[in-house]
């Protein structure tokens, strides 16, 4: 899903100020790309973290929703040519898929012995199955997804490099969505039930609330967020059946580093991992991918509950 | 009114309730007494649908509620105050109280409810914006009782409300239970403090090894040392 | 044993009816190698209860190690295979050390993430590993050392070599699963908390399970390199972890046969189903979801269960003789010296706003039977939890045999000779009654011995048999603990604690939920035990407490309210006021 950084030799003119042999402008560009990558990771990881907090399930099908979102967006653009409609259709349709998955599959394992294990296993099964369904429907090769012309081109120049309008767009959309999600969690009744359910599901029921419905809604919201991230990333990368797997693993890292089940943890973890990827991509391209995994191992050894995790919440 | 008829319930594979029958009339306060492990908490959990009854029937106003989910039972007018209190530690006191109103009116009319429960539990007034985890044991007990009133029950099941509380609080809780009943609610009380339980209720059931062994009026039992000795062993 | 001989016979003659075509023989070889991989995986999942999604790293590192040894260092075949297995072991050590800081599904997620490190290293280190092209050209694959043979390239030779290695590996795994270590792994899976209270360092036990699993996964990876003559990068990529999970669950966990059957089914799907269905993974994923939802025991597990049920159906369970009262044989303790066996100084435990245990000074002399009483919520169970290292103390110290044990983990406290029973029955429900007692007794003899049959440890067996007799649970010896009656489970609860041969025994409401008759018998039993072991007892039944204790400590709101002989406590005005209330 992400792009590699710009290499120094690709930069047009040498600049005066350098850091570790790279002009400052390139640092700015990389930091900016890292920020955008981080935004996308946050959007996907948020749903993963919400579902884990409330339902205790590590949802391996979450990457699928990201991929399906990109396909739903691609399909909408193919049919109508309208990118903005795609932004709407992707989360809606994939949210619906989320409802179906939760109602038809996950519901069967609640309350059984080892329900959390079974949750990993069935969602893992879905993660194997659904990409092949997509391949069957849309073919194996990836689909190109053009940047909409309203958002193409660059907004301004940062020294030698151009700042693409579309990247700024992603940044702005995330900057709007995150506070909205925060408000949803902290200022609405649904958010109240989700937060209460995260600590004690049975007690929520004993106050007359139908938790099953909240679970379905939360799962659907998570799926919709991932799908939205998928469709807005699509113009930066090709749309392909395999795109869900990598983002899922990176979101695992985000939640481990930030702390599973916390809003702040996901935001901090997402930005940290996004930036780390972008900067290591510039400084030492060859082993860039390994660095985030090592960072995760380090966080686990030093602070097992993650940077913002609370005691106990991520233990079992 | 609540009627429990010949109910069996199991936890895992061991037999916990055997043919338990009891009833609570509208506005009546009833105590359920017995040793630790006699099945008192299980009886309450079975009424609430948390533990499944394997046999027998539970009716509420003549409707069969045996197989309903806990949230439906609560909506029908049975409130539950759990032994472990189960305050949401990550929510404020106000949010804890609001949780109880969501199923009633979506938390739109909090004022009347707050007035009512803060009159019953004045110390909570100062704590509305504190997180549940920062409350003392006594405050947690007040909050869990106040919260259970939010679901507008006709019958309140109260499990061990004085457990681990300072003596001053114990008296307050006892008085509150009397006051709650005076406001028209029926109460089914499980309590270790026999004196308090007998003082706050009109009728008593004694459970032993998961079966009802004796029933009588509270005033009668207050003077019957032999029966208490036999079933409570104090 | 019969099954193994049968398997050996089938495998030895397989080339005769596998048409002798290289294709089928190669396929069979591959199934066996994957079967070994799945078996190694199941050591962790089915026997130690750890779900890993990172086994691609173990298999892959081994496959590449073997491949590189052959291709770059030109080492002999045997050495390369052994090096591969050791590579798997070391990878498991690295991964296990990090991920075992977590549990359950969180751990599963971490194994997946960590396994990616190895994939990326292989991917980026193209000059050595061949990157996405994989590692081919393994030139001296057919030279053996020290045997000095030039192995024939014929598939049948390779088949027999692989069969022999795998058969030996299965025998070793089988042996290990029956060893004392194997039993400890099962106990940790059945009830980790209780296993820890019996003195087992459960995290280390799970790490050892990781190592065993890593080694045999590594062996499978090395053999895979030999069989394929090539190391595809898929061997180390995360879908391989999914493949082994699918194979194991298809076949069924907890059996030796299951992983091989699962491997067979998977390879069949991959090679034959895919000829007819281009998108065969839909079928694999779907079948996997259905197996998890409806047949969690897998093919072999379900078949075994059906066979067992048919066999058992006519012979209805004969009811055992009723359980009689437990008897205790008294071998009196040495006369107590005056130094307390256990002592606390200012012990305090705070939860949020609640002080559950408040500056408790408490001392018990050797040989004493002490009761701790107090109203519900007075902090008695919390006090026990702090004493045994289950909860860390907020302030204060605990000394046992003069040693500061405040910071010690539960298992270390147990090894010093402290045992406890639980208020809420906490036994190994899935294990037999005898195994419950045997595993507790074993903790005093060996924790990690992976050789020899666990059931032939004479000292341990004697101790467990003695416990069976003591608790009068003899007739229920082979019954699953979960199927005992409530009263019997309560006896077993005490028995597990006693089987660890403690100097100091904490009993948390042993008579909870018992009838007056059972309560009386249990009280007698505890009184008789008091001759042999120092006891602290939390109990609600005042008759029991007054009847059997030497001294009584009264807790109220986490503080010591009074302490003295039963007679003194009975007379104590404070106690009467707050506790006896009558």
Key terms for this structure?
B: 234 residues, alpha/beta, six-stranded mixed sheet, four-stranded antiparallel sheet, 9 helices, C: 582 residues, 23 helices, 10 strands
**Spatial gap, N to C terminus of chain B:** 32 Å
Low-confidence stretches of chain B: none
Helix content, binned percent of chain B = 25-40%
- The number of distinct helices of chain C, counting runs of at least 4 residues, comes to 23
- Estimate the global geometry of chain C from the Cα principal axes: elongated
User: Largest interface, and how many residues on either side?
Assistant: A-C, 45 and 41 residues
Spans where pLDDT lies below 50 across 5 or more residues of chain C: 314-325, 327-332
Major sheet details of chain B: 6 strands, mixed
- Which strand order do you get reading across the main beta sheet of chain B? 6-7-8-3-9-10
**Mean of all residue-level pLDDT scores of chain B:** 90
Described by the principal axes of the CA atoms, the overall outline of chain B is: globular
Q: Supply the helix-strand structural class of chain B.
A: alpha/beta
Oligomer: heterotrimer
Short note summarizing the structure:
The complex is a heterotrimer of chains A (316), B (234) and C (582). Chain A has 316 residues and is mainly alpha-helical.
Commentary on this structure:
The complex is a heterotrimer of chains A (316), B (234) and C (582). Chain A is mainly alpha-helical and 316 residues long. In chain A, 67% of the residues lie in helices and 4% in strands. Chain A is built from eleven helices and four strands; from the N terminus they run E-E-H-H-H-H-E-E-H-H-H-H-H-H-H. In chain A, strands 1-2 form a two-stranded antiparallel ribbon. A two-stranded antiparallel sheet of chain A has the order 3-4. In chain A, a hairpin with a 2-residue loop joins strand 3 (154-158) and strand 4 (161-164). The longest helix of chain A has 32 residues, at 24-55. The relative contact order of chain A is 0.19. Chain B has helices at residues 40-47, 70-75, 93-105, 110-120, 137-149, 167-182, 194-200, 218-223, 225-232, and strands spanning 2-11, 14-24, 29-34, 53-60, 63-64, 78-81, 155-159, 186-190, 203-208, 211-217. In chain B, the strands form two sheets. Chain B has a six-stranded mixed beta sheet, with helices on both faces. Chain B has a four-stranded antiparallel beta sheet with strand order 2-1-4-5, with helices on one face. Chain B starts with a strand and ends with a helix. In chain C, the strands form two sheets. Chain C has a six-stranded mixed beta sheet with strand order 6-7-8-3-9-10, sandwiched between helices. In chain C, strands 2-1-4-5 form a four-stranded antiparallel beta sheet, with helices on one face. The A-C interface holds A 56-58, 105, 108-109, 116-122, 124-133, 135-136, 245, 249, 252-253, 256, 260, 286-287, 289-290, 293-294, 296-297, 300-301, 304, 314-316 and C 51, 53, 98-99, 101-106, 108-110, 112-114, 116-117, 120-121, 123-124, 238-239, 242, 245-246, 249, 278-282, 284-286, 288-289, 292-293, 296.
């Amino acid at each position: 899903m992400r792009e590699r950084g710009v290499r120094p030799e690709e930069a047009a003119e040498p600049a005066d100020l350098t850091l570790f042999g790279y002009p400052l402008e390139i640092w700015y560009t990389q930091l900016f790309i890292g920020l955008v990558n981080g935004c996308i990771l946050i959007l996907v990881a948020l749903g993963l973290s919400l579902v884990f907090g409330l339902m205790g399930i590590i949802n391996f099908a979450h990457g699928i929703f990201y991929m399906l979102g990109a396909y739903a967006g691609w399909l909408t653009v193919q049919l109508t040519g309208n990118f903005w409609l795609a932004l709407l259709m992707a989360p809606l349709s994939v949210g619906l898929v989320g409802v179906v998955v939760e109602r038809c599959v996950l519901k069967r394992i609640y309350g059984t012995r080892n329900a959390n294990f079974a949750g990993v296993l069935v969602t893992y099964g879905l993660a194997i199955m659904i990409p092949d369904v997509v391949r069957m429907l849309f073919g194996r090769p990836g689909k190109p997804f053009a940047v909409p012309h309203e958002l193409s081109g660059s907004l301004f120049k940062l020294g030698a490099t151009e700042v693409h309008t579309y990247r700024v767009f992603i940044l702005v959309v995330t900057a709007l969505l995150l506070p909205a999600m925060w408000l949803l969690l902290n200022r609405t009744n649904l958010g109240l039930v989700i937060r209460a359910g995260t600590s004690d599901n049975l007690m929520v029921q004993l106050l007359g609330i139908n938790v099953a419905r909240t679970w379905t809604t939360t799962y659907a919201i998570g799926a919709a967020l991932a799908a939205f991230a998928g469709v807005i990333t699509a113009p930066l990368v090709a749309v392909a059946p395999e795109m869900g797997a990598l983002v899922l693993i990176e979101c695992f890292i985000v939640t481990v580093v930030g702390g599973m089940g916390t809003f702040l943890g996901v935001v901090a973890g997402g930005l940290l991992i996004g930036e780390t990827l972008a900067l290591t991509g510039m400084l030492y391209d060859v082993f860039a991918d390994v660095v985030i995994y090592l960072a995760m191992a380090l966080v686990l050894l030093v602070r097992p509950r993650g940077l913002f995790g609370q005691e106990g919440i991520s233990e079992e | 009114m609540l009627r429990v008829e010949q109910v069996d319930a199991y936890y895992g594979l061991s037999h916990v309730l055997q043919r338990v029958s009891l009833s609570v009339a509208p506005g009546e306060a009833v105590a359920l007494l017995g040793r630790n492990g006699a099945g008192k908490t299980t009886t309450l959990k079975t009424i609430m649908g948390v533990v499944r009854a394997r046999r027998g029937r539970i009716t509420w106003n003549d409707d069969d509620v045996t197989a309903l989910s806990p949230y439906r039972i609560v909506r029908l007018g049975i409130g539950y105050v759990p032994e472990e209190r189960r305050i949401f530690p990550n929510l404020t006191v106000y949010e804890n109280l609001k949780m109880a109103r969501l199923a009633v009116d979506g938390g739109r009319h909090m004022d009347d409810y707050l007035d009512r429960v803060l009159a019953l539990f004045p110390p909570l007034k100062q704590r509305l914006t504190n997180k549940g985890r920062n409350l003392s044991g006594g405050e947690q007990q007040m909050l869990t009782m106040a919260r259970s009133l939010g679901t507008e029950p006709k019958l309140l099941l109260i499990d061990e409300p004085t457990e681990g509380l300072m003596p001053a609080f114990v008296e307050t809780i006892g008085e509150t239970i009397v006051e709650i009943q005076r406001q028209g609610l029926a109460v089914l009380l499980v309590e270790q403090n026999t004196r308090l339980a007998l003082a706050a209720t009109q009728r008593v059931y004694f459970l032993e090894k998961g079966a009802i062994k004796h029933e009588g009026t509270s005033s009668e039992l207050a003077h019957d040392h032999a029966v208490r000795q036999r079933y409570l062993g104090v | 044993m019969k099954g193994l001989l049968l398997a050996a016979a089938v495998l030895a003659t397989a080339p005769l009816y596998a048409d002798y075509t290289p294709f089928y023989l190669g396929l069979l070889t591959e199934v066996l190698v994957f079967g070994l991989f799945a078996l190694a995986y199941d050591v962790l999942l089915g026997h130690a209860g750890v779900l890993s999604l990172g086994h691609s790293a173990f298999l892959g590192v081994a496959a590449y190690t073997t491949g590189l040894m052959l291709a770059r260092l030109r080492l002999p075949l045997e050495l390369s295979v052994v090096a591969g297995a050791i590579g798997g072991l070391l990878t498991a050590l690295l991964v296990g050390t990090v991920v075992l800081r977590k549990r359950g599904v969180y751990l599963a997620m971490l194994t997946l993430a960590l396994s990616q490190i190895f994939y990326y290293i292989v991917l980026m280190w193209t000059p050595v590993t061949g990157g996405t092209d994989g590692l081919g050209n393994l030139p001296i694959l057919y030279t053996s050392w020290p045997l000095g043979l030039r192995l024939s390239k014929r598939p049948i030779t390779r088949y027999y070599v692989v069969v022999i290695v795998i058969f030996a590996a299965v025998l070793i795994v089988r042996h290990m699963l029956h060893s004392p270590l194997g039993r400890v792994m099962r106990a940790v899976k059945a009830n980790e908390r209780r296993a820890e209270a019996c003195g087992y360092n459960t995290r280390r036990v799970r790490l050892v399970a990781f190592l065993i699993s890593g080694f045999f996964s590594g062996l499978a990876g090395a053999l895979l390199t030999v069989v394929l003559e090539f190391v595809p990068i898929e061997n180390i990529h995360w879908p391989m972890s999914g493949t082994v999970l699918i194979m194991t669950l298809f076949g069924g966990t907890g059996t030796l046969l299951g992983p091989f059957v699962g491997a067979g089914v998977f390879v069949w799907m991959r090679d034959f189903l895919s000829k007819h269905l281009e998108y065969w993974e839909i079928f694999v994923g779907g079948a996997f979801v259905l197996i998890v939802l409806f047949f969690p025991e897998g093919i072999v597990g379900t078949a075994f269960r059906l066979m067992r049920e048919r066999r058992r159906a006519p012979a209805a369970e004969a009811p055992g003789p009723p359980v009689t009262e437990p008897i205790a044989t008294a071998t009196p303790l040495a006369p107590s010296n005056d130094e307390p066996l256990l002592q606390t100084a200012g012990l305090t435990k705070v939860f949020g706003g609640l002080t559950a245990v408040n500056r408790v000074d408490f001392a018990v002399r050797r040989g004493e039977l002490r009761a701790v009483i107090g109203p519900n919520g007075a902090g008695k169970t919390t006090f026990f939890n702090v004493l045994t290292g289950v909860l860390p103390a907020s302030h204060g110290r605990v000394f046992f045999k003069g040693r500061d044990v405040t910071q010690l983990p539960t298992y270390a406290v147990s090894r010093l000779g402290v045992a406890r029973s639980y208020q809420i029955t906490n036994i190994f429900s899935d294990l037999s009654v005898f195994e419950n007692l045997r595993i507790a007794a074993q903790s005093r003899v060996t924790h990690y011995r992976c050789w020899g049959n666990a059931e032939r440890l004479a000292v341990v067996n004697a101790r467990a048999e003695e416990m069976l007799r003591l608790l009068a649970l003899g007739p229920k010896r082979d019954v699953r603990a979960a199927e005992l009656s409530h009263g019997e489970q309560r006896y077993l609860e005490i028995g597990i604690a006693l089987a660890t041969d403690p100097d100091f025994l904490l009993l948390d409401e042993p008579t909870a939920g018992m009838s007056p008759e059972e309560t009386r018998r249990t009280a007698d039993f505890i009184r008789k035990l008091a001759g042999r072991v120092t006891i602290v007892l939390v109990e609600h039944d005042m008759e029991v407490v007054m009847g059997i204790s030497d001294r009584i400590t009264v807790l109220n709101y986490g503080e010591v309210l009074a302490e003295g002989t039963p007679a003194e406590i009975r007379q104590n005005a404070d106690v009467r006021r707050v506790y006896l209330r009558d």
